[in-house]
Amino acid sequence: MPHYLIQVGYNTSGLAGLVKEPQDRIEKVTPAIEALGGRVENAYYAFGEYDIVLICEMPDNASAAAFALAVGAGGTVGSYKTTVLLTPDEAVQAMSKAGESSYKPAAG
Q1: Global confidence as pTM
Q2: How far apart are CA 71 and CA 66, in angstroms?
Q3: Number of Cβ within a 10 Å radius of residue 63
Q4: What is each CA distance from 74 to 62, 67, 85, 108, in whole angstroms?
């Protein structure tokens, strides 16, 4: 199953809500990911640009996008970033295919 890095940054409304009512949001969002056929592999709270970082398995890009849309529609997140992750084998396959590509850079 494909893996995704999900990075979430709360907006001021989201942060105010967590300060008012502290809760483990990772625990709260895990069922939503599972309902889409996914699984949280690792999850961390962070400080800086993003407040939560997840490594998830999802069945496909549409499921990962559905979760992103649901989170965005909630109104408490200011930034959300999904990065598709490749296994080492997938990365080597991509490198091999790139070597066979007919792509030519623009003349410069």
Answers
A1: 0.90
A2: 9
A3: 20
A4: 18, 11, 25, 46
Distance CA 37, CA 14 (A): 26
CATH label, 3-100, candidates 3.30.750.24, 3.30.457.10, 3.40.190.10, 3.30.70.920:
3.30.70.920
Rounded to a whole number, what is the largest CA-CA distance in the chain?
58
For every one of its 108 residues, what pLDDT tens digit does the chain have, with 9 covering 90 and above?
A: 999 999 999 999 999 999 999 999 999 999 999 999 999 999 999 999 999 999 999 999 999 999 999 999 999 999 999 999 999 999 999 999 999 999 989 986
Look up residue 83 and give its two tokens.
């990065």
Q: Cβ(63)–Cβ(15) under 8 Å?
A: no
